[in-house]
Amino acid sequence: MEGYLLTIGILFMLYEGSYCELYRHDYYCDQAPGGWLKFNPIPHTWEEAALRCYNEGAILASPLDEEFSKTLSNIMIDHGLLTTPIFTGISNVYARSEYQTMEGVPISNLCISWSAEPNIKPSDQNCIAMNTNGTVTALSCLDRHPFVCYRKSGVQLNECGAVDNGFVLDNRTGSCYKAFNMLSSWPESFAICAREGAHLAVINSDTEAEVIWDLAKKVLAQTPVPSWSYVNIGFRSWSEPRTWMTIHGQSLKDAGYDKWSPNEPNHEHERCGTLFAGSSVKDGVLNDGECHVTRKFICELDPKINAAVH
Ligand SMILES: *[C@@H]1O[C@H](CO)[C@@H](O)[C@H](O)[C@H]1NC(C)=O
Ligand SMILES: *[C@@H]1O[C@H](CO)[C@@H](O)[C@H](O)[C@H]1NC(C)=O
Ligand SMILES: [Ca+2]
Ligand SMILES: [Ca+2]
């Protein structure tokens, strides 16, 4: 009898183990919906929420069946969300007459119950939210609500533990990087890296300065913008007089790289961190720049943190 139970136990563990393969450290595996879930407590508009999930290689979760609906309810209860609904992936954003989940399942194929009369306004973009008790309600897509991202199992992750192959491992630092060719303010750059599950690149050594400088040179050469010969990276200043800190809270010296360009930092109103990479004289060293000025930027991802075993 004991041997029998042990066998069952081991089989169960094997099943669990093979079922829950590697995925991002911030997602957890759930057997009921058959995949990975992540609760996002910060209220977002529907579009922001959909984009956020997309950037994580996932989609906005919908109550696809009763079990999935229960899983979502339990997530809400576990996070103390008793009166605030979450956005689901169900909406009519593509065509006013067509309500479907992100997967493309029409609303008529879902077993959902409305919290009151279906309060859909025919002419509007409506996004369907779910209450803690499992009922659904139609809301403006511009409202802000928490949401759950969902990733079906069977994910192919690259060596960076990322879905996005734009992140490439550099064997000199053991970190992964992605250079963005678009121009963004420093706060936007910070937010885009965060959405990708990464962070604005933080220079932790002379070697890493070279790695990031190389990437910056390449991305700046892609579409040359002569007046922007630098990229946004992960440090900035606070208070008066200015105190320079990496986005991970360390002084530049403690972080491992504090080589400023000659005569930098120069202007009090330049509070955001950049790296010179396009003007031969000053290349590969730090500069203080204005936060609102748009520049190309570099995100960094630690593969060891991202691809944790569950
Ligand atoms: C479910 O919750 C919603 C919103 O809190 C509420 O309006 C509705 O009456 C509840 N329905 C049931 C069946 O409890
Ligand atoms: C590091 O990567 C470079 C370029 O891809 C390669 O030539 C080199 O052999 C690699 N070094 C190690 C130690 O893996
Ligand atoms: Ca780093
Ligand atoms: Ca400056």
UniProtKB/TrEMBL annotation:
Pfam families in the record: Lectin_C (PF00059)
SUPFAM superfamilies: C-type lectin-like (SSF56436)
Highest taxon listed in the record's lineage: Eukaryota
Domain C-type lectin: 45-150, 172-300
Keywords: Disulfide bond, Signal
UniProt signal peptide: 1-20
Protein name according to UniProt: C-type lectin domain-containing protein
Lineage: Eukaryota, Metazoa, Ecdysozoa, Arthropoda, Hexapoda
